[in-house]
Amino acid sequence: MHDLDDWELVAQTQAGNTQAFAELVRRYQAPVIHFCQRMVGSAQEAEDLAQESFIRVYRHIGRLAPKAKFSTVLFGIARNLALNALRDARRQGRNSAQSLEEQLVEPAASAETDRRARLKEIESALAKGIARLSPEHREILLLREMQGMEYDEIAKALHCRKGTVRSRLARAREQLRLRLVELGGDWL
Amino acid sequence: MNEKHVIEELSAYIDGEAPDPARIARHLQVCESCARHHMQLLKLSTHLHAMPMPAPRQEFLTRVMAHVAEEPVPSAGWWNRISFATPAWALGMVVLLVITALTGAWLYGPPSTPEPTQHIAQETIEPVLAPPDPSPMEDVGSYSADTAESVSYDELLAMLAEASVEEAEMSFFYDESDLDDQLEALDEQEIQALREVLSEYLQQSYTENNEG
Ligand SMILES: [Zn+2]
What we know:
The structure holds 2 protein chains of 2 kinds.
Chain A: H1 6-14, H2 18-40, H3 43-59, H4 70-91, H5 96-102, H6 114-131, H7 135-146, H8 151-158, H9 162-182
Helix pairs in contact in A: 1-2, 2-3, 2-4, 2-5, 2-7, 3-4, 4-8, 6-9, 7-9, 8-9
Chain B: H1 10-14, H2 21-30, H3 32-50, H4 58-70, H5 78-82, H6 88-107, H7 116-129, H8 136-146, H9 153-169, H10 179-185, H11 188-211
Helix pairs in contact in B: 2-3, 6-7, 6-8, 6-11
Bound molecules: zinc ion.
């Protein structure tokens, strides 16, 4: 099962082999949960969204065709669900940016070497900076920088043009850079 | 500095997506402020890339698979037997042309042409070469008039519309610019499947109309 590529696993799932689908979940659970958590903040909500993403893929699996990478399809669904969740939260007056920042782990204490402590500090600043971006800027940065998706794939996942990916990503990076400078990012 | 600054292009540049990277590289060698900006974006990118991804809890997989077990076994409906990823209207064009062909070649007994199979094959290849243009719909209008009520045009449109809704749900599979490619992607097998599905459908509606 490990040596099969994603679309071979999809084909096996279509043929009724649920173990093939379990392998797909195993393969992508960490990045999808991580993406959702960075998008919405709450770890619990992120797991629920990731779970829903996998279930929706399963529901539609009879109709999936290898026109894009499987991961693009999966993240395309996850980002729709995450944006919906953020919209609902905003309607209910919950401040997602605040909850995003509240759940951030503070840098660990000084038992670590200076270098590690320094890295933790940067990580924490980055997480804060990301949490303060708009959802649109956040998602495109996450897909590019953390999931390593190519511009073409991002365009498919976000259902926009490649030129839009290029310009939106440039704005997202600039926004993040400015936020980090605000946060005293002398490391930049 | 007699050159334009390149700050807006740096994001694409570090991703290897800038249209003219050589010009940007040259500018970075002579412009201190753009070079500093470039270094900041590189650092940002490197640190983002290095951010740790926590391992998921064991229960996650178990929970997802428990839900999956409650879902109906995935199956492909009639539309999917052809090719889900083909945009509905493009398939629609094929459908309509096949109908036009079938009307003469199959529904109303032996056609005047001696080789009906070949005739159908030629008709179905046609949309592959045709530019995206919804005008074949008009052909069907005249076809309906010629052949009385044997096929309910509204019903067919309803079926296509239903397929479009499902397409929209999964819209990240294609964009408009892919249409030509997707038309060409219809292989013999898919055309054959399409033909069978339509034969079934036409036969059914032909029988119903004649009984009614
Ligand atoms: Zn410059």
